[in-house]
Amino acid sequence: QVQLVESGGGLVQAGGSLRLSCAASGNMADINVMGWYRQAPGNQRELVAYIRGGSTNYADSVKGRFAISRDYSKNTMYLQMNTLKREDTAVYYCAADRLRLVPSGRGILYWGKGTLVTVSS
Q1: Average pLDDT over residues 86-109
Q2: pLDDT one-digit tens code per residue, 45-72
Q3: What is the rounded distance in angstroms from the CA atom of residue 55 to the CA atom of residue 90?
Q4: Which residues contact 61 (CB under 8 A, 6 or more apart)?
Q5: 3 and 24 in contact (C-beta within 8 Å)?
Q6: Interatomic CA distance for residues 113 and 39, integer angstroms
Q7: 40/86 Cα distance (integer angstroms)
Q8: What is the mean pLDDT of the chain?
Q9: Which of 47, 77, 83, 99 fits 22 for a cystine, CB–CB 3.0-4.6 Å?
Q10: Residues of 20-35 as b/e, b for ≥16 C-beta within 10 angstroms?
């Protein structure tokens, strides 16, 4: 079993920055991919970014503004969010899986409970 706990959400003005953290515990030996999803009220869940080994991937909506990273020594994943926009407002979820993170999020093995990011104008 793997437990994921997000932190770092909050209220920020448009143009500002936040860094989200996802602390992982448990048996991480089989986890090959981790990432961040977000879901805004009334919207579908969106895969924001994921990291597999040294490879990263981003949604077009955040490319150039967000950066995902993973510190294996601390079992922690990060999402640095810069130049935040109002449309980035959402609950952000950490996710982990052995194989892949699909855009819909269906079938993902492990989820955190989420952290709320609110971007004000």
Answers
A1: 94
A2: 999 999 998 899 999 999 999 999 999 9
A3: 25
A4: 46, 48, 87
A5: yes
A6: 12
A7: 11
A8: 96
A9: 77
A10: bbbebeeeeeebebbb
